[in-house]
Amino acid sequence: MTMAENKKHIDSGIENIWRFIRGDMKVQEFEQWVYSENSLEKMLGKTLYLETISVNYSDKDALHKIKELLSEYARQAAPLQCKCIQLSDIAVVATGEESKAVFQHIKEVAKRGEPFWWLSLEHCRECNQWWLVASEERHNDVYCLRRLDRQTADEILNKNSWPDFFDRYETLLRLGHDTGLTVRFADPMDSSLAWTIADLAKERPGIGISEIAKLLNLDMDVAKELARKAVKNEGVQIDFEDK
What letter would DSSP give residue 185? Predict the structure, then answer.
């Protein structure tokens, strides 16, 4: 069953609008869909339809404005208690009020277990959307979510066959870094950072010290000191000459 079928009969057109708003549909693809969708005027109404087909999609300000207008329309056209349709196919959510709102209707169904202790399969009771959820609590305090179709969820539930999207802890750290959800420890030397560095090096032997510093939001000198500790304690391989 597709996401559109799951979402309490939400029209596929509304789903396309949300995909565009959240960045999962390329601007050019959405623009082509707008010009080719015969039922769009009936769906949006004359005023919003005219604004949507006449906007200059290469203009950043105009693009931002039309997304705001379409977002307001989509919220009213398909009201849902959950946040699933608003989340990107790959989403990063900070712990706290943001995660409480997101996970209000999403519940854990299965845990992957060691060595992938951070992974779970979760399901939204409101819209029936399935998510692969990675809990990155050790460093940045974020949740990384990957939208799943029902077939992939069934593979997990029936065969214990998990997709590898979040198998590497490095991926979670990179997602946090790329979305600006990174933290700095008050005292990096008195923290779990050395263990995190060791885990990164176990996943990718020879990882460069500059990559480690970037992923963990560390000054280079601190990163080197922690990395030497990880090498001594865990025997991992790290490239200290990396620039």
Answer: -
